[in-house]
């Protein structure tokens, strides 16, 4: 009986995307809400040896008739301090990270107050991470959680909740 309940729960989690393991670990945006919440910041981030390189950022807003509009906000969201990327967001703002690598396997890891995010990035395939920024202002470090070579320890950046 216990095995049947666990198997049923596992299949339900995969089908609905309700568990963190399946929700954020599968490609094809399986755990990303559709449509995206109003005000979602979408950040395109490339993992290279040995740095996170934010490519650009857009914000999703909806007009009064429900049409989705993507506004470029790169210069307001992405900054660099001492060579490391800072991504600036507002408290409780929805964030979607579209992650890409073209050389080796990386893993995007960030520990948030409401739970960690860990997404593997396979070269040549987009991976997705969707989360709400913490309600507490501060800096939250993201880093590579998959050993990717000699400079692996320098592969980090910051989510700056203002």
UniProtKB/TrEMBL annotation:
InterPro entries: CcO_II-like_C, Copper_CuA, Cupredoxin, Cytochrome_c_oxidase_su2-like
Listed GO CC annotations: membrane
Domain Cytochrome oxidase subunit II copper A binding: 38-162
Keyword Phosphoprotein: no
Identification of the protein by name: Quinol oxidase polypeptide II
CDD domains documented for this protein: CuRO_HCO_II_like (cd13842)
Keyword Nucleus part of the UniProt annotation: no
GO molecular function: copper ion binding; cytochrome-c oxidase activity
Alphabetic keyword roster: Copper, Metal-binding
């Amino acid at each position: 009986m216990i095995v049947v309940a666990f198997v049923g729960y596992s299949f339900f989690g995969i089908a609905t995307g309700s568990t963190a393991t399946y929700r954020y670990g599968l490609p094809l945006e399986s755990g990303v809400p559709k449509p995206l919440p109003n005000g979602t910041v979408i950040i395109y981030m490339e993992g290279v040896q040995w740095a996170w390189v934010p490519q650009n950022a857009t914000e999703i807003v909806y007009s009064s008739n429900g049409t989705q509009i993507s506004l470029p906000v790169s210069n307001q969201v992405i900054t660099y301090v001492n060579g490391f990327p800072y991504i600036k967001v507002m408290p409780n703002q929805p964030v979607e990270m579209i992650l890409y690598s073209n050389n080796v396997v990386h893993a995007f890891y960030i520990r948030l107050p409401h739970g960690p995010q860990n997404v593997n990035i396979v070269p040549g395939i987009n991976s997705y991470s969707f989360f709400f920024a913490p309600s507490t202002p501060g800096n939250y470090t993201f880093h590579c959680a998959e050993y990717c070579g000699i400079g692996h320890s320098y592969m980090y950046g910051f989510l700056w909740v203002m």
